[in-house]
Amino acid sequence: MFAVSAKGGCRVDNSIKAFVFDVYGTLFDVTAIKKECEELYPGYGEKISQTWRSKQVEYFMLRQLMDNYATLYAITHDALKYALNENDLQPSKENEQKLLAAYLHLPLYSESKEVLTQLKDKNLVIFSNGSHDMLDPLVKNAGLDELFDQILSIDDVKQFKPTPASYQYALEQLGIESHEVLFMSSNGWDVSGAKSFGFQTAWINRKGMPVEELDLEPDYIFDDLTGLLKWK
């Protein structure tokens, strides 16, 4: 898969001491949840899944702004209820629990495990807005738990990315300098937050989207995770 440096050329910074990964949309395909949505609500799978994800992100950012923390698991449940109500679908505790359980078994992107395996001699770290009650089972179910040196959740400090406090927490856990971190995410807002904080960043731009207009250009832009094999 094609990979480029956002600053041009194919430079590799060998000062990197930690390769830090976001989870949802970066390692795991969140959009795949539409299959389970479609099975339970025929004809509405795409609509439910799109609203569910957008409201999930909107709600944790709103809760951060309002200083009204809830775990991402609780927020994911609330976002699901909204998505069902938006489509005039009758809420069902049974269906809600099935869909929430599916979030613990999201599929990996096709290259995720192979890339991580090839980089296993590096310091590999997960850093996610996911709370441990949904993050830890997801990683274990996918067989990735033994590939990572640390699994960090903002739930430990109750500060959602992209707040500076969230990245500061990760940095303190890593015990290195900010410029020695390469942070990977498929979410432009997350990459921008990490770049603003001082991390080096690699945007996994799976959808071919334009760079966010925040004057915080990523250090690297890759189509998928295979671009990280430059550091193998």
TrEMBL record:
Keywords: Hydrolase. The keyword Hydrolase applies. PANTHER family: HALOACID DEHALOGENASE, TYPE II (AFU_ORTHOLOGUE AFUA_2G07750)-RELATED, HYDROLASE, HALOACID DELAHOGENASE-RELATED. It comes from the Bacteria. Belongs to the HAD-like hydrolase superfamily. S-2-haloalkanoic acid dehalogenase family. NCBIfam families: HAD-SF-IA-v1, HAD-SF-IA-v2, HAD-SF-IA-v3, HAD_type_II. InterPro entries: 2-HAD, HAD-like_sf, HAD-SF_hydro_IA, HAD_sf, PGP-like_dom2, S-2-haloacid_dehalogenase. One of its GO terms (molecular function) is hydrolase activity, acting on acid halide bonds, in C-halide compounds. Pfam families: Hydrolase (PF00702). This is Haloacid dehalogenase, type II.
